[in-house]
Every structure is written in structure tokens, then in C-alpha cells.
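Below is a complete specimen:
___
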Amino acid sequence: MSALLPTIRTARIVALAAPLALAVALLAPAAWLAVPVAAGILLLLVLVDAARAGHLEEWQIDHEADVEIGQPTQLRLSADISGTAGAVRAALSLDPRIAPGGRADIQLEPAQGVWSGETELVATRRGTAEVDALWLAWDGPWGLGGRQKHIALDREIRIWPDLSPIRSRPLQALLRDSELGLISRRRRGEGTQFEALTEYQAGMDRRRIDWKASARHAALYARENEAERNNQIVFAFDCGQAMCEPIDGLPRLDRAVSAGLTAAYVALKGGDRAMLFGFARRPMLASPFVSETRRFARLQQAAAGLDYQTGEEANYTLALATLSARLKRRSLVVLFSDFSDTTAAELMIESLGRLTQHHAVVFVTLEDRELAGFTGAEPDSVDAIARAVTADALARQRQLVLTRLQRMGVDVIEAPHDKLGFAVIDRYLALRAQEAIAG
């Protein structure tokens, strides 16, 4: 059942008529009866107009059940209203993670006898977003009265990690043109697994010469090896407070997850094995190793379960010790993290130092453009100078921590979020080519 309501136009008429009614009461008290009569006529017109607005016969909402964080998606609404409707509006009550303020407004337009409209939604956090309720309001032909209907909804939109970098043209071109393409090609001349013998040519690495085979054939022969496969790649994510802070509208954790999944996809294409590990105050997630691209969805589902631990600092000591105990052979550990104070940084450095004794480690952090902006801002006020000095001190501390990690043998990647995925892929391919992963 729809409710009858006055429109904004009626409210404006009442607001404009109020001073006139007051003037009549002061200047012509004998004519005061005209005021309630006019009000009664206006009320009658509102009711007649609302009655002529018709009834909602049918409605339909269409939207994707699964969306990716940061990627726009369309929500479409259509309504079949009998009678004559002057204007139709709609409002949706949504989870704030997919609509600012938890509300989305839609202006409907007539098309082929049905009112329809759409709005664009952009998810800013992973999880399950509920679509709670729909309000439909339509005016009568005079615009004085209208109807409104509240419809309870029981719908959900699942928000997944962003995989758009995997679908991007640059990455697809890399997968087609490199050894990690759809049909993997063996790389000869690198790696440790014997592939074949070939005649030695000028420029070849002399360490590849097979002296026994050369003696048998009375000519120099070199060994061609196949690049190592089946390496173990661990993508570890800090889910603590520092990684929950937004950068360009999305949490740092989601920027890291997108880059990690992109690199994991490339690793699976190359014949290696990948797993995800998440932690904050304590370990939260440890997926099994996945070895085929057709099982990549398992990594995607595991990444969707990396929850935001706002208010918790990362416990690197417990997390990395737990991870090290799970790894039975040398692996490449790609750690996505950030640090906000020197105490946390010291614990992180100590834990990573122990991890590098048995594994190859890459530390990945997002470039803080906001901090750089404060440092490079024009000193046009005392506040700007104070911000610049503080930002410069933080930047120096940050650089000192990264330098210490590099001296310990940790590969460090600091890149903007839009280049992070390819930076991780480049470093992974370089380490793989150097045979730095297999032990």
C-alpha cells in the first residue's frame, strides 16, 4: 500500500502563502475565513492529484551479484506505474561500503511505457554489502500530490578483490609474448635442470661447458638447462592498522591484494606454486599452495577473506615465525606491509632478518604521495612549514628502515599503487631468472 504525500511544490506554495495569510489576518480580520478555505482547497487538490498519480504495478532491480573493489558497476531500476505520473524518483538504502552515506538516488525517466533509471556504484571495501530497502515516489500530473512506497529488500552484493590488472592489455601481452604465455616455452641456457647438449658458441657462459661430453666428441659442448619450476611463492599481507588506511580512495590492503593476486597469477602461469598468508596481531589466513591457473579462484576466495583489522598493530614476530614453520623448503616470501613508528619497524627488521636466513624475501610497500606532497608544498604559512618538517622527518625514518632491509639482503619495492603489481612481477621474474628462489 502506497502512502499519499504532498510534493515539494506544495510545500513551496504553503511557504509562500504563509506571509500572505498573516497579512490578511492583520489588515483584514473580517476576511480571515478565506485562509482556511484556501487551505482546504489546496488540500483537496493535493488529494485529487495524488489519486490521479496511479499505482505501482510492478518493479524490478538489476545489479551484479559479484563486483570488484574500486570498479564501477551499474544498478538498474524499472517501475511500471498505472495512471499519469508527473515525475518518478527512487532512493536505495545500501551498505556504506558500496555507496557514500549508505544511500543511492535514482531519477527515473519514461521509456516504452515503463519508468527506468540507473546509478553507478563503486565499492570501497571488500565483503558482503546488503541492499536493505527501496523507496519509490511519484508525483501526480499537477505536481501537487504524489505517492510513496517503501519496499523491503533482501539482497546482497559480494565485493571481491580487484582483478582488473590481470585483464589489462599490458599483462596479457606479457603472458602471450614471454615464456609465461598460454603455452609455456622452456627457457634454455638458464636454470639448473638439464635439458640438452649443444655445440659451444662464442659468448656462451664457459661454466656451461660439459667437459666429459666434449672429450667424447672431440669438440666443445655446453649444457642447456631448463629454468626451475615448481618454486614456492608466498604472498604475505599485513592486515593491521597501517594497511587499513586509504590511499586514493581504497585501503592500502586492497591495493596490495590486487598487486599480489596479479603476481600470483603470473607465477602460476610460469609453473610455480603460490599461497596467501595474512596476519595482524596474530596469523589470520594461511591458504594451501596452488599450482595451476585453473585453481586461481581459490587464491581469490582466500584473498576475499583478508579482513581489515582496524586498531590492531601487526605482530611480525609471531606471524613470520608461524610462516617460517610452515615452509618446509626454500621459498620466495613477498611481504606487503607498511609501518608507522620506529618500534614496529625494529621488530619487523628483526623478524625479516631471521626469515632471510632460509628464504628469499621481498618487502613491498606503497609510495606515500601524500607525504611527498607535504614535503614539497610551498611554505606559505606556519602550519605548512610544520607539516613539511614533520613529513620530512617521517620520510627520512622510512628511508632509513628500507635501507637497513636492503643491507640485510631483503629486496625492497616502493612504488605507487597503480604500478605496484608490475613492479612485483618484474622482481619475481628477475629472482626466478637468477635462480635465487630454489635452494
